[in-house]
Every structure is written in C-alpha cells, then in structure tokens.
Amino acid sequence: MELTTFNQLSADDAHAALAHCVAIPAWQQAMVAARPYASLDALVAEGDRLARQWQREDLRLALSAHPRIGERVSGAGREASLSRNEQSAMQQADEALQQAMLQGNRDYEARFGRVFLIRAKGRSGKEMLAELERRLGNDDQTEQQETLDQLREITLLRLKESFS
Ligand code: 2AL
C-alpha cells in the first residue's frame, strides 16, 4: 500500500488495512485518527509511540492472534500467512529442537499463564528456545514488559511491511 492511499482511505478501510498488524482495536483506531502522515517515518514513529503505552489488557487481546512458536499455523488469512513467514526458521528445526520448544511452551504457559511471545523474524529456532529458557527465570513484571516489547517489535515490522 502507498502512504498517500492510506491517508485517503475511509476510516473503516484504514482500520481494516492495519488489522493484521496487531489485534488491539485501540491502537488501530489511534493510528487511523492520527492521519494524515507526512512520511513513513512519521507513521512508524506514531505506531511505536502508541505501542509503548500498552499494558496487560492489551497483551491479552493481542495474544489471541499469535500462534505458539513451532505450532503448525493453518488458515488462509493474512495473519496466519504472516505468522508462518515470521516463524519459518522453525521449519528447519530438527526433531529434538521441536520437542524442546513444545516442552518449553508448556513450561512457560504453566509459569506465566499465557502463550510465549517473541519476535520470530530474524531469529533461529535455537535462539528462540534460548530466549524462552532465559525468560522463564524472569519475575512476572519483567516478563510482562519483555513480552510487550516483543509485541511492539512484531507490530512495527508488520506495519513497515504493509507499506513496502
Ligand atoms: C509469533 C508470531 O506469530 N510471529 C512472531 O514473530 N511471533 N508468535 C509467538 N508466539 O511468538
């Protein structure tokens, strides 16, 4: 999509154009309301600024749209295809790594009560597992902040890609 097109869309269409970035309606709405953007940098800066205000409830909303790392993502929708692409490194993971990730996900969910979230793009399966194991040692507050930071990274990557 071109930025000038996005600036001129109806509010509903502009909202729909950002829906795949993150499942947080308030963020989508605020991004639409801040149009027109003078540049892509300005758009990304606003996305980043708004994402830094997210809290626990935003995380809960957003996680519904993120499959577990290593889980086969089915579905033809745009989010499913984005997740498949972001997590493509896991397709090269051997059986031992896949099993370790499965167990790590279980341990993480038992410890923190939600799905382990990490910006997968640019990371190997091994790196994601190492991060999972490190983060299992976090206290609740630290882990919530790390997860929100990861969610912001995923969202901004998706946002940038929407406009390239
Ligand atoms: C994901 C996902 O779908 N894309 C990404 O970068 N991370 N999921 C996850 N549980 O971390």
How would you describe this structure to a colleague?
With 164 residues, the chain is an all-alpha fold. The protein is 63% helix and 0% strand. The chain is globular, with a radius of gyration of 16 Å. The longest helix has 23 residues, at 140-162. The protein is built from nine helices and no strands. The protein has one domain (3-162): UraD-like (Orthogonal Bundle). The model has no long low-confidence stretch (mean pLDDT 95). The structure holds 1-(2,5-dioxo-2,5-dihydro-1H-imidazol-4-yl)urea (2AL). 1-(2,5-dioxo-2,5-dihydro-1H-imidazol-4-yl)urea is lined by residues 66-69, 83, 86-87, 115-121, 154.
The CATH top-level class label: Mainly Alpha
Helix tally equals 9
- The helicity comes to 55-70%
**Euclidean distance between termini CA atoms:** 7 Å
CATH topology, by name, is UraD-like
Offer a few descriptive terms.
0% strand
Element layout with pairings:
Blueprint: H1 3-8, H2 11-18, H3 25-33, H4 40-51, H5 56-63, H6 78-86, H7 95-112, H8 125-135, H9 140-162
The structure holds 1-(2,5-dioxo-2,5-dihydro-1H-imidazol-4-yl)urea.
1-(2,5-dioxo-2,5-dihydro-1H-imidazol-4-yl)urea binds at residues 66-69, 83, 86-87, 115-121, 154.
Describe this structure in a few short sentences:
Helices cover 63% and strands 0% of the residues. The chain is mostly helical and 164 residues long.
